[in-house]
Specification:
alpha/beta, Rossmann fold, 9 helices, about 25% strand
Length: about 260
């Protein structure tokens, strides 16, 4: 499915990173990067394994602190927030983890109810049921409501993980390798779902991936992370219209017809 044009507010930055540096002992992961995510935008961060893509998500959410630089999310200086303020901010951010992060001992219904009960004090049973039904319909899996995660396929688990994130109506979505380990047809379905979430929930998203099909199908802009820095940013065509020896082989390996 071709990506539908969406309205992006380029005057409204929902995430702004400046001069981010991060090292682990003697290994430098990020070398002074700048990044902006605009309201309503899907931004894909592309890079090889170990290039610092997942570290970037942890810095944005306050799970890690940079060695240098600033992190602003939804108007908040993340590095200045206390634990309570960080928890409140994270409720406004949806995380789609690579392994879906479902509780194996809970049914699909219970997995979806969990974040609501935990974060929405005083919510009624009727409101919970409505929210669960709504997000299951949004990801096309209403029939799985009473199943256990072990009974689901990898693609279904990924969809339920996204549904559990959507149930809190996040303003920002962070997708960590959303198509990893999935077959080509299921990958296309997940890419379509990411675009549907952007359109229907008006989210702004960062999509971490090394899958060029995912990048092309979902990204309004692409940023290529190489050796701890963003080397090229633009549309898919702009990023890969280059003879740069660090970028061209990446495209050739992931060949797209």
């Amino acid at each position: 499915m071709e990506k539908t044009k969406v309205n992006i507010d380029y005057n409204n930055k929902v995430i702004s990173l400046r001069g981010l540096e991060k090292s682990f002992e003697d290994y430098t992961v990020l070398r002074g990067i700048d990044l902006d995510l605009y309201q309503g935008e899907n931004l894909v961060v592309l890079g090889r394994s170990g290039s610092g893509k997942s570290v970037l998500i942890k810095l944005i959410s306050g799970l890690l602190r940079p060695d240098k630089g600033t992190v602003e999310v939804l108007g908040n200086d993340v590095l200045a927030l206390n634990d309570r303020q960080l928890r409140e901010l994270r409720i406004r951010i949806g995380f789609s983890f690579q392994n879906s992060a479902l509780y194996d001992s809970m049914t699909v219904r219970k997995n979806l109810e969990f974040p609501l009960v935990r974060n929405r004090k005083g919510i009624t049973r009727k409101e919970i049921n409505t929210a669960v039904d709504t997000v299951l319909e949004a990801v096309g899996l209403s029939q799985t409501i009473n199943q256990m995660p072990a009974e689901l396929s990898g693609g279904q688990r990924k969809r339920i993980g996204i549904a559990r994130t959507l149930i809190l109506n996040p303003e920002i979505m962070l997708y960590d390798e959303p198509t990893a380990g999935l077959d080509p047809i299921t990958c296309i379905e997940i890419n379509d779902l990411i675009n549907e979430v952007q359109q229907n929930y008006k989210t702004s998203s960062i999509i971490i991936t090394h899958d060029l099909t995912c990048a092309k199908m979902t990204g309004d802009r692409i940023s290529m992370l190489i050796e701890g820095q963003f080397q090229r940013t633009g549309t898919f065509e702009e990023v890969f219209d280059t003879d740069d020896a660090r970028i061209k082989p990446f495209f050739d390996y992931n060949f797209i017809a």
